[in-house]
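Feature request disguised as a bug report, sorry. It would help if multi-protein outputs had a clear separator. Right now it looks like this:
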Amino acid sequence: MNTLDEVEETLRPHYVERDGRYVLGVDPVDGYELDNVRGLRTALGAERSTRSGLETRLREFEGIEAGTARAAMERLNEFGDLQPQDIRTRLATLERLERLNPETEAERLAQEKFNHAKSQLQGQFTTRETQLTTQIADLEGKLAAREKQVTKFFKTGQIKGELSKLNPLPEARDMLEMVADRDVRHREVDGNIILEVLDENGHPRIKDHLGTPFTLADYMTELREKRPALFQADGKSGLGTSETNRAPSGQAAGPQGNPFKPGASFSITQQMILMRTDPAKAARLQSEAGV
């Protein structure tokens, strides 16, 4: 005990102090004496625990000979710092490699490389194909626009050429070209551009029962025959009329009345002369005619 406060006064002389504690003082008898065995008990418990742990670990090596164990330990030291998990992984890899057939494995690896290269080439081809397709579409669009321009120039040039052969009045030239452009179309035959004169239904015109095409020259000749006042007389200049049919200076020749109004007074020639010489009057007459 730590103190003698609870011990009767008469018994206190029988206690002695040891290691900071009070114990009953007993004289040794035949070599036996009363002593503090707490430390011994603690040491004994530790020894028993150590023995139990060693016995448990020893059971794991039951059936293994000492020589075999030493040889295994020596082999284990050859692995250096490898951990058990690393060893298991390597053993699994070794087993997988041992199961492989060298011929089939080489073929498989070659096929994988081929497929990878094929995939890369296909990707590059697709990208390049897209680029070229875009470029081709752009060029085709530009080419179509150029072809349209060339065809238009060709058609316009042919009309101007054929019309110039018949000496149209300068002031009537633009109007005649517009009329011809409306009645003539172009199309491609065997890589060549040809012009066709259309009828009121939009069909190509023919000259006879044999189906002979009605040419642009035929059309211009017909146009001059229908509207002689819009062309100059052969070897002369002016409106294609005789001096007796000319109107006095400053007046429009032709029938009296409104040249914009359908009927006997309608005259494209007079319309053009009025629009050139007296635009205000021409606008008034157009309004009266409901044009």
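(second protein starts here, but nothing in the output says so)
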Amino acid sequence: MAQGKFCVQPQCSTHSRLYWMGIRGTRLVFSMNPAPRRVPIILYLHGGPGDACIPLTMRYNAALERDFRFVNLDQRGSGLSYHPFAPDEVVTIDSMVEDIHQFVLELLRAYGQDSLILVGHSWGSVLGLEMVKRYPSLIRCYIGLGQVVSMRAALRLRRQWGQQSLGPRLGSIVSRESGAADMVLMIDELLSRGGAAMLFGSLGRIMTYLRSPYYNWSRLLNHAKGVAQSRARLDAELEQVDFSGQTSFGAPVYFISGKYDRHLPGSLVERFADGLKSPHRFIRFDRSGHCPQWDEPERFAATVKAICL
């Protein structure tokens, strides 16, 4: 397993450190905690496209390190894996899935295991569910957070809700994938969950990056560049994603949706789960928006342990 290690100590309760691995011509950075060799592995796939989140999982999800080897991968061109995409560099859903496939093979080989637990959030849930479709033998179980089922259906619901609740102008903004849409939806989720106090409290997530020993101003700028270039390459393809015709998977799948998720409404996910013939479960977090893993981290850790141990 070709890897390197960053030696800066994080200022939080996590035991994770940063490593890197060479995969398909690029250098991918990931966080990982020390753990016994046979402990179950969780691989976390961040949202976006491009919205890498190692500081957030280090802060909010460190409890999982007690029972799992928790790995959070910064995807190609994102976060601490940032590099400017070359004009001829292939960056598609298929190519991103293949990056993850090769990374999974290396990770399993390194720790002598046959399969792992895959967690995908939002955009990462597209890559995660594609992994389950294509390589089910490598997946012990899959957990989708803010799961994408049909982006076209989600965007239609967002437009209807936006025009009724926010007016025509903002309704038009939230009907497409964009940074502006994410901001509008996030603010509404926070206000719905707890008003201005919840909105103010969300600044803690921003501060998590500013306080991270792994991010300086240059890396924060690269993070923003990674989001921008990933969206430019992938948003149009993301808007066409549709799993709604899938009726079974070769590994157990679990979906966790926040009650206040405006990005990807839980009603679509619940309906999709109800139609599956293979092992599955839909779980609603009543105090969460689009990020249940950070809105209710204690419940998330308990749920993952109940599902996977």
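Even a blank line would do. Unrelated, but nice: The mean pLDDT is 93.
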